Amino acid sequence: MWHKFIASLESKLLQLESHEFWIAASIVTVIAIIAFIRMARWWSHARMIEDVPTSRVRSASQGYVELVGHARMMDGPVIFSPLSKKSCVWYSYKIEEKVKTYDSNGRSKTYWKVVKQETSEELFLLEDETGRCVIDPDDADVITTNKRTWYKRTVSPPRRYTEELILDNEPIYSIGLFKTVANVDRQKHKEQVHHLLREWKNDPNHLLHRFDTNRDGELSLEEWELARLAAQRQVKRELGSMEKLEQLSVLKNSPHKNQGFIISTTPEDALISHYKTRALLAMLAFFISGSFAVWMINTRLGL
Q: Which residues fall within 8 angstroms of residue 147, CB to CB, at 6 or more apart?
């Protein structure tokens, strides 16, 4: 039976036109390359999760970190999933229609065609016992346990709905680029200093009274430096409390391709197993498709 199948496949390959054969061989080769890339990516994710230690929000260093806590909704309008109308901090959904096509021999083939899909880009919070961190889910690899699929067969064509959610207060794991950001940045601080110095220059008597230490009626370079330092201190005092209140930390996608950005509601051990299983399946697909591509070319060229 197996030998008959191989012989039939060889016959069909040899009967293909040259351009048809090379298109088919190229497709199989591309599948092998994609499988290899995904294998490397998923195995790298598993190793990173194993190697990067868990940090606390308050003491996390700037850079690539792993955080564990609970998902929290940010202040503002409540987020609802467009499909189930459930309140959540993140959602992703897909709507598909069942399509039937026929080939030249009249044989039918059915498949699911995506008609609409959307992934939430709203920010939400990760909270642990030490503090809160803003999660920017853009470009993240999100894995959720709250996933369901249902069908609507009373419409024509039938539809399939898939929805994934992260709910408020749900346990969450994330690894990505951790960065502390303050709305009162250095540029704003510098602008405020320059503005204050200009105000002082408009009142030269006051400026001389405060900083003309030798009372010669003009400011030397050393005395002007004292004025500049005093302006910096005053601006820091005025902006300091606001800076503390507005300071926040963000976990987001890293610009380095070897540092994955992952958000998951599954525990760390299960997540490692998930990525290793994906990597092994991708490796199997790589060897099967790669071997098949080599066999196709050898058969066609008679090698």
A: 162, 163, 164, 165
Domain hosting residue 191, numbered range: 186-244
- 199-240 pLDDT, tens digit each: 877 777 877 778 777 777 777 777 777 788 888 777 766 655
When divided into structural domains, the chain yields a total of 2
Question: What is the per-residue pLDDT for 244?
Answer: 47
* Cβ atoms of 264 and 143 closer than 8 Å: yes
pLDDT(164) > 50: yes
Checking DSSP bridges between strand 90-102 and strand 108-119, what pairing results, if any? antiparallel
pTM of the model: 0.68
How far is Cα 236 from Cα 244, in angstroms, rounded to an integer? 11
Terminal CA-to-CA distance of the chain, rounded, Å? 24
Question: Which residue in 189, 206, 60 sits closest to 133, CA to CA?
Answer: 60
| Residue 303 within a domain | no
Considering the domain architecture, whether residues 232 and 256 belong to the same structural domain is answered as: no
